[in-house]
Amino acid sequence: MSTATAVGLRCRECGTEYADNPINVCEHDFGPLEVIYDYPAVKKGFSRETITKRAFNMWRYRELLPEQEPVSGFNTGGTPLYHAKNLGKRLGFPKLYVKFDGVCVPTLSFKDRVVAVSVARAKRFGFETVGCASTGNLANSVAAQAAQAGLKAVILIPKTLERAKVVNTQIYGAKLIKVDGHYDDVNRLCAEIANDAKIGIVNVNLRAYYAEGSKSMGFEVAEQLGWRAPDNVVVCMAGGSLINKLNKAFKEFEKLGLLENEVKTRFWGAQATGCNPITDAIKRKSDLIKPVKNPDTIARSIAIGNPADGYYASRLCLDSGGGGDDVSDAEIVEGMKLLAETEGLFTETAGGVTVATFAKLAKAGRINKDETTVLCITGQGLKTMDALMEPGVLPDAPVIKPTLSAFKDLKIA
Ligand SMILES: *Cc1c(COP(=O)(O)O)cnc(C)c1O
Ligand SMILES: [Zn+2]
To answer: Candidates 3.40.50.2300, 3.40.50.300, 1.20.58.100, 3.40.50.1100; correct CATH number of 111-210?
Structure first.
């Protein structure tokens, strides 16, 4: 079952190794499983030169992914890293960058990266149906990439998701099921389904493989900064997987001798105050996660009350010298507007969380203004327009007669 460079699984807690299999957690301690690589094998022929000769998408780093040949998500990744000069000027950060996964294909969020890897793995394991427990973006991506790979898809979501996330799942022909409960209820149900049925649930029994796809965002950031790890990364957290995998990506590049600098990145985690189990722990300087029972925020895509990787995410933020904070729904909308008005980039509510949290940390003087800081923007604004359609959020446009005098009466210019 192993591919050229990915050779099995290992428990992050006790180190027990497992052969490649669709399993959720370690059978001794329920610890999360990580994909093991044969790094000497990776190193052979994996240089800056070979990487840059390949197409600019996530597969150019295939030796460091659990699957080397895509069956879907053929052009996933390769998203822009913008030097955010306008936003940087506004907040006093000359070396501010925005990694924009709002244009990731096929479904406009960073989840396309994790799904591309896990669908390839599902196919290798012989699953005919893939599925997920989702807060929206994962649903969209599993539905689209199952269609690309010729697999069936069964998707479970909390019943309150945004309309755009529902439509962007059903259009691909996936079987969508709405669960009367929060994401954590959906996830628990999916764990039972994974034990019982022959379905490759990408974030349950394929989770170890799935999570590795997030590393490609970190590889790209480092390459786009001129083979350097940034000083600071700000990223919103749901289950807390992405933030850990960004760190793993920088560390793997360092291990393989691909970086100009030593990795000393400080990680800053962002959440919505209405669902902040990880930033609550970080602010208490603790790694003890207190689950949030009733998440209540417009940032639905990151509203996970009981985060699977919350412990590791809070440890990473604290141990790296970073930290974290959370923001209100009103601040999230301000964050979305701020990014759009300064950089011309429209992000979904989760990206608003990242921008608003960064602004808050910046104003409090927590992040050094002269350092390189990357904001990881993980999703697209067109998917969460509901949050902006509330009265008073955006101005009512004036309606005028089609005459020059009517236009002049507006006294615009
Ligand atoms: C899933 C998701 C995240 C965070 O993912 P985790 O790895 O679970 O922390 C961030 N942003 C968006 C838009 C997402 O859909
Ligand atoms: Zn274990």
So the answer is: 3.40.50.1100
